[in-house]
Amino acid sequence: MAESEIADVAVGIDLGTSNSCVSFARGSEIEVLSNAYGENTTASVVNLGADGSITVGNAAKANIIHDPTNTIYSAKRLIGRYFFSEEVKKARAICSYEIIEGESHSVRIKVREENFSLPEVGAMVLRELKSIAEAKLGQQVDKAVITVPAYFNDNQRQATRDAGRIAGLEVLRILNEPTAAALAYGFGRNLQQKVAVYDLGGGTFDISVLEIGNDVFEVLSSSGDTFLGGDDFDDRVIDLLADEFQASQNINLRNDPYALEKLKVAAEDCKKAFSVEDEAEIRIPDVITAPDGTSHSIERRIDKTEFWSLVQDLVMRTLKVCDEALQAANVVARDLDGVILVGGPTRLPAIREAVAEYFQQEPRDGVDPDEVVAKGAAIHAASFVEEDTDAYLLDVTPLSLQVGVAGGLCEPIIERNTPVPIEQSRSFTTARDGQKLVKIKVYQGESREASDNALLGQFEFSGFEPAKRGQVAIDVAFQINTDGIVNVMASDRATGQQASTSITLSSGLSQTELERIEQRGVTERVRTETAPAEAAAAAVGTPASPAEPAVPLADEPELPKMPPAAAAEPAPTPAPDLAQDELEIDEEDLIDGATPSLEEDLAEPIAAVASAEVDALEAEEDDAIVPMVEELDASTPPPGDDEPDSLFGDGSADLTEEDPEVVLQPTLDAVSTEEVNTRPEVEIDLDLECETRVEAAQTHPTFGGAASDELGGEDSEIVDLVGGVDVVRLEPEEGQADGDGEPELDLGSIEELDDSAILLDDAPTDDSEPDPDTH
Amino acid sequence: MRSNATQTSEISALARILDELDYYELLQVERGAEVSAIKRAYHQSSRSFHPDVNRHLKGDVGEAARRIAMRISEAYSVLRDPRRRRAYDQRLDAGREVRIQLAEARSEAGREAVQQRAGRTPQGRQFFKLAEAALARQDLVSAANNLQTALTFEPDNQSFQQMLGEVRAKLR
User: Are A21 and A40 in contact, with CB atoms under 8 Å apart?
Assistant: First the structure.
């Protein structure tokens, strides 16, 4: 299809945890674009060479065994996550590459002394796919629809979008994988069907129920688990082998990156074998050399029954999620006209059988589980550049959008499975006279407990005229667009003016960071197509014989040679020498969200003053205190007593829209300090790391004093500025009660909390007296 | 895709009156429409107003198109959900605003359920509580009496009626 001139091409990309796929559609023709080795999927694995070059795909994957510390795989499991999240902790324990903390609690991968953000790693894979498409189509490709698991939250979607941008792609749409699969399945077939898409990928599980009516694809419900995928099946086999080896040889293979990678490859092969066989033979010659010099091997036979016993609970977990999705869609299994399987692991007969039994029907044949998502994305991408829009995708948000309220709880704004795009508004007011700032924490998830949900960010609104408490009305609009990306905007009801908004806490890249990364241009280093012949040979015969070292490359993987590109660069992401020691922190520190994100800040001379204090406090204190100090020091005239907001005013001029992260950090901490100092009894909603910080501060007598010293006696101002952390819901408790009458937030707590924002409800708050006798 | 001129003027016109249209008018369905009709109307509206259709529109018209698309989702979310729809219908009947926030509709529906269960009037609630307390200490006679009294304030409260029936059944 390269022969004809196409002015504008847009491809569909399935950026998978383990494998990725790129596809192109024109009219009714849909083609999967194969890579230089003729493979339709490309491993989402990135290897950094000693010379600074980057290899992506199966050639990189072949390197895992030889060069584990410089080979990044399954990065999708980390994208858009905070460093303190469970998934990142887990990955740090099992991944052979180094995972460290970046600014604002983000995650960085450190390879050969270079730090990469997750969007950059994603961009390397995307860059490879872009090149594959360009080679195949014979022209430049700069537009794409990229798919994500339906259950991805806003952070993960944003990060994926950023990855596309870094790779030099205009991301036309972030599309949900199951929706893409359904589109590929039903496009142009004039179907009237209800279908379920069971999508078990390398790292995530999604289930979506859709109703297809000719050209309309309406998602009725979506559910999922972003902590569950084919990788987990491999891990079960790895655990079995490692445990047995430990028992028989008293050597823990998990401690040796090389041995671990060998186990990983063997486990994956074992899993794949069960797609066609009833039994798998695992042979890992020379898995490790013991301290006494003897070489050990593993030979193990696993039959279908044993494998099933290893993974049965994982499969059952997916079916439980299916229950949820069916219930939300208000359908039962027999209402479904089809079940579509997506993702490599669904090739496993054990899964097919379990799914068939659950849905009481055989899954649809003729759908390639590895390619169907990319094909759907390609169909959708084509509609962006072709004249006719042939299909309408009516998708939903899979996760409830909530705001933090008093007592560490959440209040839903947009429930899950609400169609997108959608906008909902809420009004907030001040809790205190003269308050100049209103803060709102936004979460995604289904729990009433804030800490159980994913924190998207903390938004702060300022720029309104200060007034008596409760007199200010700030209308906040929460939007979710068709990409599933959340947007929060505020306006002052009195003036109708857009309030200035900043995001204080975000796992994503700031605008400036993104630009810096783009300039850094790591994806330029991705070596495409012209992969070395030996790597090609290794890749063609994929991991069929993992035990045989096919690629005699990288015998000295530890080579500390600095890649030229990085050396030449004026350290865009400074390798945090200072913070290096702190990177080796234990789990408790992680919960504290304490140390490591200092790297950037500490590199700044301005912050150096504060660093001593911070070092002293770091065990208990959150690092966000640093930006605060930095911010104060940076603004030449210290904020005067009468204008506590000047500090934000100063910052917001250049920071508000463009670089939202910097502005807000300060208040976050100032609040907690003050709250703790003045009213230690009060329960404050500081989720996750913040919570621990408060506790720590309570037991740490010097903390408050030190902080206010740093602030130059600004503490009282800070209180005003910040007020508190939570949004207090002001509404008769009945109104909050759900049909099932679960106990609701006690109104009494409002009196105790002089918080920065109060959620105003449109419902009258006075006529129905709050029942004094709540259970 | 339809011609841009028609589309643009239609979008602008609709955006101007968007805040005056109730959800039924927006989706162009009858007040008593079945859920299936509402779904059809949602699909039909999406053919004209889904962001994918109008993604090429920039500036004010683009913004107008996005507002319409979001409002259509909102209308559908309320009208397809019986509980939300009931709360919304009551609001329309009372001549209140034509929009309802989704969570609000849910909580209004929830409030209705709570009121049904615990009483709408202060007296009804008071005696219902006394009845509950009596039940808690196994005093069925007192519970029945209090429920009876509660029902004099809210004779049509089915929840009270049902509970009274159960208490009396136990008394026998």
Answer: yes
